[in-house]
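Quick review question:
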């Protein structure tokens, strides 16, 4: 048991979601769809430009992060340590528009991959809390 207060970005959905979503293959499909959406959506142009031209490295990291966050294998923290997501995003100006663009891409990715509706709603609520907590430029 972790005696420290859990920061919001590390709050996990109840255990078992990694299996019910379909494990790493399903998470990989969602992350692929997410970055395809980011490449294609006009409202995501600003957040797409924060990333390098090659999305493969960040895709692999996001897959590992989400697998662990959903209760799967802990490859992310084994490789990168504590997520400290707010700190890792501090270099990027994130306001409400950037938060909403990220969430739009994720919602579309979950729809495209036909993620179960109840699971999708639960995930979107959790992603909203994390993305909202990431805001750092006051807009
Ligand atoms: C709120 C809007 C967000 C923006 C604009 C954003 C943008 C970015 C950018 C530009 C990177 C670095 C990519 C690179 O290294 O090329 C990144 C990394 C990452 N993002 Fe986000 N992000 C957002 C929200 C989120 C959310 C909600 C999550 C989690 C659910 C998340 C998880 C991650 C992870 C795990 C990484 C890799 C961190 C690492 O290096 O270990 N991001 N993000």
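Suggested answer, residue by residue:
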């Amino acid at each position: 048991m972790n005696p420290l207060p859990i920061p919001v970005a590390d709050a996990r959905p109840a255990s078992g979601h990694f299996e019910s979503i379909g494990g790493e293959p399903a998470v990989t499909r969602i992350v692929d769809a997410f970055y395809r959406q980011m490449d294609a959506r006009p409202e995501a142009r600003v957040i797409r430009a924060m990333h390098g031209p090659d999305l493969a490295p960040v895709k692999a990291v996001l897959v590992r992060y989400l697998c662990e966050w959903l209760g799967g294998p802990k490859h992310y923290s084994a490789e990168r340590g504590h997520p400290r997501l707010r700190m890792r995003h501090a270099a990027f100006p994130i306001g409400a528009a950037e938060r909403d663009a990220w969430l739009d891409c994720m919602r579309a990715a979950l729809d495209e991959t036909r993620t179960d509706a109840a699971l999708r709603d639960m995930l979107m609520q959790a992603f909203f809390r994390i993305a909202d907590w990431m805001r750092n430029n006051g807009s």
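Why it works: Residues 9 and 85 are 7 Å apart (CA to CA). Residues 1-8 have pLDDT under 50 and may be disordered.
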